[in-house]
Design a protein that fits this description.
alpha+beta, OB fold (Dihydrolipoamide Acetyltransferase, E2P), Dihydrolipoamide Transferase, Chloramphenicol Acetyltransferase, 6-stranded mixed sheet, 11 helices, 29 strands
Length: 583
């Protein structure tokens, strides 16, 4: 294996996952592959995931065939730089790799001497600027910002759990990462010594950015061009906290997450793209990151204020590579460039200006993206909960004792909804207008919106909810909601929903029109239940009633389907014998 090639290894898709089955390859030997292109599918005992390529290049060699199950860290494929030649297909995978590729450290992790040991980003690239490891300093590995979700493009370092100079073992907690989806504690993928911390706590950087270096005891971190290796130096010896990629033997980047100098300023791929799209003068932007680095927030602030415009896009931007780290859903400030200017607010000295949290910005971006993507329509139906209320009052104490979950109206609505999704499969689907296809899901992965004490929303997912009875569904919802509020949700807990329920009813809402949770085509809303006069035959009685609403994507189905779906739920709640499920 040449020094200017990269090996992608079996990623660790969960804290307890030790192996994975490679179920499908999307590329073949000789195919060109770009950063973030779907590369292969992996199935574990926890999740099925589509793994993107961490590099631009050419598939040089596939080392593990579809259907094989291999341990985490096993080399799967070699990627050569663009224009590189693919290797021959002769010989087994083991014969084609150096024998050290399959060694494991004594502590159970990948050996530091193993050139194919996995990085945090799921792949291994050259660790220094020459594309090889210099013998005098020992083996050094970059730890990169992991991708903690399909749509996650960046993360914020919450805190470092180890300091430079500390000894670390495989799977020791290394640092905490906060994304717009989840807060996670990231373990070390190696045994060794934490030689250098490249990104400090509180900094937000794109997926794939080198965060730290781990090496053998006594090893030295690769020196920068000036000979320094301080914690603030970037891997390429450029501006502190700059985003750079492993460099090949000929000095070119691998294309995974290249930074670009624009007018003498080092920009991350995400910032570079925002600058190019908004036609900004980089020299007029004041960077607030470490060492004056220009951050996404700096660009968005300039865009919102309408300043720093360039007369024409700089030549460096015009020739910048098109393939960059995917940009997250636009925040309101970024979206402002495509809408009419918003009138300025008041300028009263009593006003208090606060910085929007990362979660608030993520929610805002996601909501705007969903509205722009779907043809959203709201319809609703009134439900008499008297039948449900009688069962609730009779069984709520024992239900709570047995399951740990409250017997509110939500478990009843959830079970009725699951049955309705079986009867109307188009409501439990995903739609791809560009491909002119609809994917019907023969299972129900139910997303449940959870409020985090008014600080934001997350949507954990009850996987295969249609296989659970009411007691099982209620217990799982309670567990996930508790984990969300305790910041203990994993990335896998919030992936793969096929339908979502939001429940503002406890806050006494009357009738709500929520925003669809992409890529679902509908979301159900359960509003407040209140005792009201209702007609019962020729008499009037006081019953608990409430509104159940459905917001759906009109591209997927029509109003008749939506109304029949809601009627199915209403009839189940009003007429079903719930005693067997609750008791």
């Amino acid at each position: 294996m040449s020094n200017d090639e990269w090996v992608v290894t079996m990623p660790k898709l969960g804290e307890t996952v030790t192996e994975g089955e490679l179920t499908n390859w999307f590329k073949e030997v000789g195919d060109a592959v770009a950063f973030d292109d779907p590369l292969f599918e992996v199935s574990t005992d926890k999740v099925d995931s589509e793994i993107p390529s961490p590099y631009d290049g050419v598939i040089a060699e596939i080392l593990v065939s579809s259907g094989e199950t291999v341990p985490v860290g096993t080399p799967l494929v070699r990627i050569a730089p663009p224009g590189g030649a693919a290797a021959g297909s002769g010989g087994s995978a083991e014969n084609r790799l150096p024998s050290s590729s399959h060694k494991l450290a004594a502590a159970g992790g990948p050996a530091l001497g193993d050139p194919a040991a996995p990085q945090m980003g799921g792949s291994e690239g050259p660790a220094d600027e020459d594309g090889h490891l210099s013998a005098p300093t020992g083996v050094v590995h970059d730890i990169t910002m992991p991708k903690l979700g399909e749509t996650v493009t960046e993360g914020t370092i919450g805190s470092w759990l180890k300091q430079a100079g500390d000894t670390v073992e495989f799977d020791d907690p290394l640092f905490e990462v906060s994304t717009d989806k989840v807060d996670s504690e990231i373990p070390s993928p190696y045994d060794g010594v934490l030689l250098e911390i490249l990104v400090q706590a509180g900094e937000t950087v794109p997926v794939g950015t080198p965060l730290a270096r781990i090496g053998e005891a006594g090893a030295a971190a690769p020196a920068s061009p000036t000979g320094s290796s301080s914690a603030s130096a970037s891997p390429s010896g450029s501006a502190p906290d700059a985003v750079s990629a492993p460099v090949t033997a000929n000095g070119s980047g691998n294309g995974a997450a290249p930074a670009a100098r624009t007018g003498g300023v080092l920009l991350s791929p995400l910032v570079r793209r925002l600058v190019a799209e908004s036609d900004l003068d980089v020299g007029a932007i004041n960077g607030t990151g470490v060492g004056g680095r220009i951050r996404r927030e700096d660009v968005q602030q300039v865009v919102a204020s309408g300043g720093a415009r360039a007369g024409a896009a700089p030549a460096a931007l015009a020739t910048a590579p098109a393939r960059t780290v995917p940009v997250a859903a636009p925040t309101p400030s970024a979206a402002a460039t495509t809408t009419q200017p918003i009138p300025a607010g008041t300028n009263d000295p009593r006003d208090e200006v606060v910085t929007l949290s990362r979660m608030r910005l993520a929610v805002a971006g996601g909501m705007m993206a969903s509205l722009a993507n779907s043809a959203s329509v709201w319809t609703s139906i009134e439900v008499d909960f008297d039948n449900v209320e009688k069962v609730r009052q009779k069984h709520k104490d024992r239900f709570k004792k047995d399951t740990g979950a409250s017997l509110s109206y939500l478990p009843f609505v959830t079970r009725a909804t699951i049955d309705a999704l079986r009867a109307f499969p188009t409501v439990n689907s995903s739609i791809d207008i560009e491909a002119k296809t609809m994917t019907l899901h023969p299972y129900v992965n139910l997303g449940i919106a959870v409020d985090l004490d008014q600080q934001g929303l997350v949507v954990p997912v009850v996987k295969d909810a249609d296989s659970l009875n009411m007691r099982g569904v209620a217990k799982r919802i309670t567990e996930l909601a508790g984990a969300a509020r305790g910041k203990k949700l994993g990335a896998e807990d919030m992936k793969g929903s096929t339908f979502t329920i939001t429940n503002p009813g406890p806050f006494a809402s009357y009738a709500s029109s929520p925003i669809i949770n992409q890529p679902n085509v509908a979301i159900l809303c359960t509003d407040g239940v209140k005792r009201r006069p209702v007609a019962v035959g020729d008499a009037i009685a006081i019953h608990p009633t409430g509104i159940i609403g459905l917001v759906y994507d009109h591209r997927a189905f029509d109003g008749s389907t939506a109304s029949l779906f809601l009627m199915h739920i209403r009839d189940s709640l009003e007429q079903r014998n719930w005693e067997p499920e609750v008791g």
